[in-house]
Amino acid sequence: MLFTETMPIGERFLNSIAITILGMLVVFAVLIIIAYSLELLRIMFKDKNTIEKSVPEKKEPVKLVPVTQENVEDIDLILLITAAIAADEGSSTDDFFVRSIKPLAQKDTIWASAGRQQNMSKKM
């Protein structure tokens, strides 16, 4: 025989609500503990990454490429990319070097790219 069988319906209802609220409080308490522990881990590992990045790297000397008709377009492309990176970083072009440019394979279809370009042109 169960303990709840001797209770009236009102008491059973109140006990079931109390058990539900208790269960929800336990779940939320565990979620809060997990959130704070993840935040603590993020802070701990972020400090290590900033220390490693603060060490200045040695820059390699610039290799000069003779200008010919074949590589004039490549040099223009490198200059444009270097200027864009410098503008985005807010630094001078003397701070870094573009060593190579590798084209990436197109992941989307041509139709998806065209649609994306149309949406971007509408926003401007």
TrEMBL record:
Signal peptide: none annotated. It comes from the Bacteria. It is found in: Cell membrane. The chain crosses the membrane at residues 12-38. Keywords: Cell membrane, Membrane, Transmembrane, Transmembrane helix. It holds the Pfam family OAD_gamma. GO terms for biological process: sodium ion export across plasma membrane. One of its GO terms (molecular function) is sodium ion transmembrane transporter activity. GO terms for cellular component: plasma membrane. NCBIfam families: oadG_fam. This is OadG family protein. It comes from Sedimentibacter hydroxybenzoicus DSM 7310.
